[in-house]
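Methods: example folding runs. The two proteins below were folded one after another, and each record is reproduced exactly as written to the output file, sequence line first and structure-token line second.
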Amino acid sequence: MIRGRLIIFSILIGLLVSYNLTGYTVLLLILIGALVKTARSADRRLTGLIVLSLAAVTLRMLAIDDQLNPPDTIPSDSYLVEVKQTSWTVDGDRLRFQGMADNGKVSHEVMVVHKISSEQEKEERSTIIPSHLLIEGELNQPGRATNFNQFDYRTYLNRKNITYVLYTNEIEDVDLAQSFFERAYKTDPFRQDLLDYCDRIFQPTTGRYIKALIFADRRELGAEVTDTFKQLGIIHLLSISGLHVSLLIGMLDKIMTGLTVTRESKRLVFLFILPVFYIFAGFGISIYRAAMQAWIRYLSDTIDCHLTSLDCWGLTFCIAVIVRPMIIFSVGFQLSFLMSFILLFLSDQVFFRELSSLKQIVFVNFALFCFSVPILSFHFYELSWGVLFLNSLFVPYVTYLLMPVLLILFVTSPLLALTQFGLFLDELARWVIVIMEEGSLIIDQGMSLMIITGRLSGSQTVLWFALCILGLLQVEKRKKLVSTLPVAAVLVLLLNMNTYSPIGQVIMIDVGQGDAVLIKEPFGRGSILIDTGGLQVWNEKEEWQIRNNDYTLGEDVLIPVMKSLGIRTLDQLVITHPHWDHYGAMSELIDSFPVKTLVMNDFTKTHSVFRQSLSQIKGSALNVRILKPDEPVKLTDQLHVIHDNWTDQTNENNQSIVLLGRYGRLDWLFTGDIEEVREKNIMKHFPELNADVLKVAHHGSGTSTHEAFLSKIDPDYALISVGENNWFGHPYQETLDQLSRHGAALFRTDENGSILYNYSDIKYLDYHLQKKGIFNVMTDNDIKESNDENSF
């Protein structure tokens, strides 16, 4: 029989999709062969089901291949766009929404980005959401990540079946009547009507939470609330999930029992209500998993098939990845299915059922935390251990108080909305929400719960899961708690592996037209960031234009890169000189990430514009170190300041701090933005100076890196940090020609993205890193090793 063996089927489909999409064809075939043999020996019908599903998945893969290889740009054209109204978001002077764009020849699902031109237009766009728009604009593929472990917007949209961003030139409302079957987003207008209803009927606070917890619309939850819940590790409580579906089923079941509804009739009711709830909850993956799993269970009972809970889980999994294969890479999919599997698995275990209720809660929280670590590490590079005890506090609060109040308030609102009792319920819900928010804020301010882990490698992830399973087996065999200590010790070691890795790194981070070089020494000996980059803002924005969620170098580039490497504290931040493209992200970075020491010279400290940025830093525990021009300084054992007694202050670029470091077996020269006259002064004071790796000064400008200096330094490798298609024309062709004549292997961020150098002090690792280390660059969102002439 198939019953009880569908878990095999779901594993096979998951492996097929993931390996097909990542290209491990040989391993894929081996896994298919092994699992098909297992399935065949178990049940011939299961084998047939597997073969049919393999065919279905293969066809979906072919379709996805076509979708993922479109032209980079489609010239400007006019498009009739059907608006997905529930994605409509106005933020400052930017309007963004998802839509189906049709130019009469071809249709594309797109993300539309429109720059709002006036405060009046913003007011109109915030008030009225049209169903259709006529847009003239250009389709462009979304931008790709150019830094290691950075969020990749193109991949994110591709996995939602969106291949283009439509940037508008002109936009016009269109009154177009479409039947239900002609719409691309058939149920979305009904869902938007419900969201609008919440805005009209309820207080803003309760309305926001009804939309978030019943209709899965979190757009209006404040950043402070979501950040606090994320820090505490309970962000899942702000999203509709299996918890809410179970609560809904339980409430309806009790109501129908009180009305003496038969069991068979209850099943029919749930078979109707669950799909409706899924649709109006916005098709989220967590709600899909819970609703579909319950729906399959009720259906199997109705037709006397009586599938097990794990069978229902397996079928739910298979349907999801066959219909939308790319969803397997979604963090929501991974967490929802893994956590629900762990719960189902434990509920079937004899040892677990024999535990007391309190021990079950503790054990479940700990098991879910352990198994979620690799997923959280991969996607966010950090996790909160607060979930171990805060779940036990907040889950009952949300389950037995907040959700029932919100559900009752919403369901009864057509009758009681404007009555005294309705207003009382609304105010009661608001106070329940306020108590939860204030309590979470107090806990967050009083405790530091986040652990930065970095991104676990593939081998570390496999080892982690294997150890978790081993720990479960030991508990199942009722061994003493002390027997699990070796497993726990290795898990703790893995959590700190990135922070104290024996591999050191020097990374030129792609910050566009600016500089930022990160140095992470082996075994956690120290981390230094030389400059931060800075996004140029040419025109000051009015208050109505300011966006709440805008791209920044600190939050979107620097901090994710550091966290992904396991850096928990930045030991030193060096600002070479007071130009915005070198320090623009400084205050944001220091406010959002622990920095021990800020290093600068006297000229930078007294610069009036720089002092304004320095005054914006909120923390007071920052240590500031001022370097003197004639003072020999060693920032670390490997990094020294070049003190050439430079005193001329007529040129700000020449005030740059110049650093000489030794990483791996290479000497590195970091030159800031110095120009030819400063280069000559350094040559005069340090006639024996040379370097294997040169950070080319001033983004490759013609005013720097002159012939005599290059001949003196004689670098084997040259690194240029420069923005793509920048206004300054950097790097200059004459600079590139000079570097080429000197035989320096060239890496540049506008073409290669971020540049990563790995090295180690350990002999064995040093040998595998080709003795002097290895350069890697970002190309097409993959880490590609440099070719033979550019590697060591």
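Second run, written to the same file directly after the first:
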Amino acid sequence: MPYSSCVYTFLCLFLLIIITTNSSSTPKTTLSYADHCSSFVPESSPVARASPPFVPNLSTSYVTGEDKLFLAVKPENETYYYYVGKSLELLIHSNYYKTIADGVYKVEGSLYIRSPYVYYDNQSDSGSYHRNFSVRERSIRFSLTGFWSENSRKLCMVGSAVDGIKTVDLDAVLKLNFASENPNIYTGVVSGTLESTRSVVNDPGYFDPISIFHFPELSNYSYSLVSEAAKSRSSDLQQDRLCSMSSFVLKMEYVGSRIELLSSCFLALSPIQCPGPEKKLRFMAKLQNSSYDHQGFGYESTLIGEASWDDKNNQLSGVACRLLYPANHSSNHAIGDCTMGLTLKYNSVWTLRNEPKAVGHIWSTKNVNDSGYFGKVNLTSFDHEDLPDLRYVYNDLDRAKKLCPVIKPKEKGSIYPDGHSYDMRFDMSFKSSKGEHIAWGYANPISVGNDLYDRNKKVVAMQSIETESVSGFKEISEPVRNTNIAPTDISYKISISLYKVKLINLFPKLNFSTKVPRRFVITAEGVYSAENGHLCMVGCGKLIMYGMNSTHTSTDCEILVKFKFASLSDKNGLIKGTIESTRNKSDPLRFEDMIIISDAYSFEMAKRSIWRMDFEITMVLIFNTLSCFFIGIQILHVKRNPEVLSRISLIMLVILCLGYMIPLWCLAKQTLFVSSDGWLEANEVVVRVITLVPFLLQIRLVQLVWSSKQSVANEKKSVFILLPMYILGCLIALLLNWARDRKYSLWDDLRSYVGLIIDGFLFPQILLNVFGGSAEKALARCFYVGTSAVRLTPHAYNQYRDYNYPTLDVNGTYYYANPSADFYSMAWDVLIPCGVIVLAVIVFLQQRNGGRWILPQRCLHLLMSE
């Protein structure tokens, strides 16, 4: 009885704690609806449960004023965070009640407000190389009850929430105006507020009013501010193309004086609703002080408008309206005066000195003496490459041909990339004449001949690469010479990101003052010869510098660009070249010569690499299956001859376990980012399973040997010799990693060293045989010969791979003979197999002639005397 009474008491206390916890975390719902919502949606008595009417759920990021709901200062232990954007979501529950008022329903719902920041708790241990983080997304949930009016499209709800951070009850009222059933510019916006019902600012449960906006895409939207678009019979501008053309950032240049509304430097334009057949669209324009469209939403700096496309003039014309704070106006909607005109004209001709841009202006349609009037503001976009009827016009080809001498091919029979191929676009790094790394960048063709370069081409068309079954792989064909090798006119856009510390050395004569150069963009045109891979161009460069709320650009058209492409048959070829200034040394815009280096990774190489990955997965499957067979033979051998268990080196078996465990761990971390089809992903799973099987069999073998060991004296002697050797080798690997230019990380070097230890897995067995002096056949011949063959085969394959396939610096593309998993080079691929064979021969002779057969007579006498 005492026991049962204790259990009963414990259960009562447990239930009391749960009830107390729930009551403290559940918000109180004692707010009066009539006190806060009677003038918005009058309260009405429910009469019956009804089928859910159409009350739209709401999910938006256009929110202001919610900052004080969350901690303004992040906790000290949360040192990592990043901005993910604002988020507010309203979910209406399915339990609706019809009321006595026509079209009015009683509803319940939840309102979620999420913090715009995601925090990370640092959980790293001191001295650890790896840090663990837990992600924390803060949010507040309001439980709300109220009424929805179908006729007025209004929703009013009251309720409470628990902060979750300060555990304070937050009482609130939510008022929303939804878009009307026949919306236009004024009635097509969802707007409202979430306000605290507490009036005392210092009250812990008080929070600032939150304004809510949402701009949904409406199928029955009626354009009322713009006239019918001027149509052209010859126009074939697609709807999605016009939508992308209206999404960019424009620089603002004030002709007159600035006013409070238009005090920003940039206008970020984005479509709300893409055009239909009538080529009209709704847009949002955000006034901001940065060219990057990452600033938060503010209704004071946001414009909403309509625009239409004029095919004849290649122009977008529209009208923009201001937003109003939802609680400060008598009307039901949040659109203010629509007194701003907007025009954008698109320049579709791309030349060396003039890039395609959208230019236009915004102006006030009010009278000069009216409040809020402002003069014309000029608008200019940055480079915009998605314009209708875009074409490139060559203007400086004659200058390019004068500066670029004709170079005859030195090697006959070499095949170079075609001008229209993907191989013409590449990333690159830049070095100064002194060998310092000064920048990185990329080069993309603009046009080849009279055709624009197709930028949608992928590295490899995955579906076009047929991977055969395991029994037979498709033979990779060699590149075919292009019959059209006449010199081709070509233009390029080269974007260079500069290192800050190298700028002074690169532009020694240029005074940067307070502006910081960030990018160097070059437009170039010239001639490419597919006969020898030479590309020579003249270019105009823009040095883009950023200052406080401004962007400055210096243009230089005295630039010479030279590229030399590698042959398609050169598997490790490099694209080399230079970017030179042809100005005088005293000219401020002259820059030091930049040397270009880029890996030439062609389409054919990509196909060969994918074939290689498929082949390597097959190799892993085959050799892991063989390993299972060899370990199984050894297990059968020790079961038939249990007396040999004590003669097997436990250290050797542990080393082999390590050899199977490391690939399992690395496969779990490896991410597959390239594939030919589903065959590769499916076999990656099979690789993990097949790798796990020999690991488990090896563990079983270790268990059998461990349980039979009666004396570990000889094992200890082996450890005394092996441990200093392994530690010394590890220190050497560390020193080499610190002393050289690191191609691999410290972990990769240590992993390679462990791979070398695994290659010499028979060395502990040789030592144990020497100390034991036994001539028993402890290891099955099939086991140690087969395992030795499994360890030396990757080195033979590495030589074949180096000769036939391109070398990648991405470890994730290697499934067999990973360069970071062992020592691979011409020398190591000879030394390691020779060493493995020597160790196997020694074990064979020891099991035939005795374990101490290898020792000289003098050492043998000393060992016998001990």
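Comment on the second run: The first strand starts at residue 46 and ends at 50.
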